[in-house]
Every structure is written in C-alpha cells, then in structure tokens.
Amino acid sequence: QAKTLGRGRHEFFDVELRERMQRRLRLEQDLRDALPNEQLWTAYQPVVDLQTGRMVAVEALMRWNHPQHGAISPVEFISLAEESDLINVIGTHMLRSTTRELAARRAEHDIDIHLKVNLSVRQLDDPQLVPVVQDALATTGLPANALCLEVTESALMRDHVAAAEILSSLRDVGVRLAIDDFGTGYSSLAQLQRLTLDTLKIDRSFITGIGTSRDAEAIVTSIIAMAHAVDLTVIAEGVETQDQLEILHDLGCDQAQGFYLGRPSPAHDLFPNVASFRCHKA
Ligand code: C2E
Ligand code: MG
Ligand code: MG
Ligand code: MG
Question: Which stretches make up the EAL domain (predicted)?
Fold first, then answer.
C-alpha cells in the first residue's frame, strides 16, 4: 500500500513540475515576441534627496503587459530572460529606450534628473555592453554622469573579480555605479571598496523593519556609517511610511525611494510634475 501511495505522490509532483516547466517555456516564447509586439514598457519611480526633499533621479523598472496573463512581474520574466541571450536583447532595448526618454524629458521640462537602470549580471558578460552604453549616451546626448547602472549585491558577489573588471570599464565611460539590494549578499568592506561604486541601495527588507525592529534599525545605522566611510551615497529602498522616512532622515541617509514617496509610473504621468515635486515630509 505504501508503494501505491508513494507512486501517487510521485505522479502528483511530476504533473506539478511539468506544468511549471510548461508555463516557463510558454512564457519564454511569449517574451521573445513581447519586444516586437510592444508589450514591454517602462515605469519610472522617483528617488528623493532627503536634505532638499526634491526628486533627483528616477529608476527605470521594466514592465510586461502579457496579452493573456496581464502584468507579469520583472522578477519572473527577468529570470526567464537570463536563461538565454534574451536578457541581452531586452537589456540593450532598456538602455537605449530609457536614455532616449530621459534625454527628451530633461530638455522638455528643463530638469536635471538622473536615470537609474538595472543591469542583469548576465549583461556584464556581454562584450557589447560597454559599446551599447557609449552609443546610447552619444545618440541621445544624455550626460554620462546622469546615468547610474545598478547591479545587485548577490549578482556581484557571485563572480566579483570578473565583475570588477567590467565595472571599471563602465566607470571609464563616466557612468555611475550602484550596488542594489544591499544587505542580502555577503560582501566585505574590502570588496566594496575595490568595486569603486558610487551608490549603495539598502535592501527593502531592512527598511521595512525600521520603527518596529531595533535590530533592523541598528543594521541600517551601521550600513549607512560603513557606506559613508568609503564615500558612497546611500539610498533606502522601499520606504512605505512617514515614520521610516523620518528615521532615515535622522540617521543621515542621503536619498530614499518607496511607495510613500512615489510609485513606479508611466513617463507621461511622472515627468510633467518633477520640477514642482517636493517632499516636505522628510
Ligand atoms: P529593484 O531594482 O530592487 O527595484 C525595486 C523594486 O521594489 C521594484 O519592484 C519596485 O516597484 C519595488 N518597490 C519600490 N518601492 C517599494 C515600496 O515602497 N514597497 C514595496 N513593497 N516595493 C517597492 P519591481 O518593479 O517589481 O522590480 C523588481 C526587480 O526586478 C527589481 O528590483 C530589479 O531587480 C528587477 N528589474 C526591474 N526592471 C529591470 C530591468 O530593466 N532590468 C533588470 N536586469 N532587472 C530589472
Ligand atoms: Mg534597482
Ligand atoms: Mg533593489
Ligand atoms: Mg529589490
């Protein structure tokens, strides 16, 4: 009897696994068509300076509007794209389209807003990355120092020697570099310093605990001190309450991002209001 039971469970898992794999395969196929079919678009989320309360940058976040499934999270489709060369195709598209958008909006609204674009670690292996970035800047006229490329801490640490090399060639182009989701990987201060970054983004999981968990607050305090010691600008991710914002301000955090300050929005909703944007809450 145990045998039949065991087999039944096996079949159950096989079915579930098969269905999951089939969804991934279908989605990967759909993702290949998403770009030519114009289903990919970009949301922009404000990054706010905590001293002045003004918007200083926007982070470009990719969105996929699937014809049957609706909005699919970038967490799911980026990881799908990373399994093939597709990540380089959509990553290149992202760099070209967002620099074009930003350069146009900066001119139209006379604003000095910087652009943050996420890079997959797979893009760091692409020999075309540096030329693509250079070309995007040259074509659009966006100043190199107005572009900041974000790579997650966990991705950087997986292969930090190779990553350091490509980051340094990006740095030679004049763009800024940020370490994203900081606190979730295991980097040392020495590794951080060697990577010659400009910005460190504290992962949302630590910001969520601020105001309720003394441990979270202690961790955030020490991350800010450590980052400032090696001259990095610190951005807090995922600020959702006034309490969190006030504490971050008091801790000397430089900039913040989160639903409390502004949700990721289509360019046409966000940019007309950038010049008048003020956060008096900090
Ligand atoms: P990320 O780069 O750390 O981006 C921040 C994520 O946190 C975004 O999720 C944003 O919508 C969300 N967020 C911002 N403020 C809040 C808040 O107050 N509360 C909560 N709960 N969430 C907040 P999103 O847009 O779903 O993107 C998830 C991840 O997907 C990004 O994390 C990034 O790693 C990746 N991603 C997005 N666009 C791209 C892209 O163009 N290329 C690559 N390689 N990765 C991308
Ligand atoms: Mg990011
Ligand atoms: Mg992040
Ligand atoms: Mg994140």
Answer: 24-278
